Amino acid sequence: MPASDLILHRAPFVVPVSGPVIPDGGVLTRAGRIVAVDRFRRLASQAGQVRELEGRIIIPALINCHCHLELSHLAALGRQVATGGMTGWIRALLVRRQELPLAAAWTAGREALLTMRRRGVALVADIGNLPASAALGQGCETETMFFLELLGGTGPAAEAALAGLPDQGDCAAHAPYSCHPRLLRGLKARAVARGRLLPIHLAESEEEMEFLATGQGPFLDFIGERLRLSGLLAEGQALSELMPPPGLSPVAYLRQLGMLDGDTLCVHLVHLTVQDLELLAASGARACLCPGSNRRLGVGRAPASELLRRHILPGLGTDSLASNAELDIWREMAILQADHPGIEPELIFRMATLGGARAVKVSQRLGAIAPGLEAKLLAVPFAGHEEEIFPFLVNGGQAVAPQWLEVD
User: Fold this and answer.
1) Residue 20 sits in which domain range?
2) Which one of 25, 78, 166, 207 has the minimum C-beta count within 10 Å?
3) Total domains present in the chain
4) What is the C-alpha to C-alpha distance for residues 184 and 174, in angstroms, rounded to an integer?
5) Torsions phi, psi of 257, nearest 5?
6) Does residue 307 sit in the same domain as residue 217?
């Protein structure tokens, strides 16, 4: 390997995430890949050129492992005070989507991606209901991993959704309360056959818990109303005839369906029983928390400490601008810290990087600073001591000003 091809980036501190902070550290890169990370003095003789980063620290880029870019034009909804619980928000969302043109969604989605790029996000796992939304990330420097989201609460609706699936591309299931078991099993079977990840919103609200356990609550009225409007539920017909409640928690329901495994990404996970936590830990299922969206919708706080205690490292997501004021992973870290002051900032930063990479199955190339990984690296201005690094990164918000490291 010619030494002239090797670039050594030197900083007062390097934050590998996969290991301890390295004072007077260096990251050796070649052709966009990380060759080595260590103390500067141990790498200096190998480099063809050295780039000094005085007053800055080197960190891995962030991962947003749950977003809905096609809802970015509904930012006004995300700034409003939520009323009427989860079903109230969904009603408002459906009305707003009908009022605004699709062209606005495309423009706003592209701008959202550019904003995330400026804030140091290397990859976004994007969930969309429109097949055309798969093209939102084309040509953008921030990578998008697109999942086409499916809904269908009745048997016929599930069959129609499965029959209309495209030959290519990844899919997501919306939620257990909006997807018939045939649809859930079908989507999981498709993902397994392709060796792909299947995301699903899970245990997000108390309304969801009540509906799956008893068939009652706000979702009974909301779903019944939607099905009557579509002609799938006759007047006087009980919703339970089409959608009998499983009588289980969302997590236990997925396990019953054979869907709870290491290739299922469970998003939100706000309302978990002790049994649910144990099931998640035993299954190896992947997890994503969305603190900002949860706070905005008033659905509660995910039991992050309990997940970590069971060796589940969640990733972080922003959800959409329809349910969150900003699509900013730095803000998600700060909200999570405020909600869970007992969690060490280092662990929260780990969620935003390596946790996110693991959640969407890209940790073999992103999420840390280690040999062989892609050199998607950020230089962050920092003038403090080593023990101040993670508190600053997690709680600094807009004061954290990441710059992309030039590695070519």
Assistant:
1) 3-60+368-404
2) 166
3) 2
4) 9
5) -80, -5
6) yes
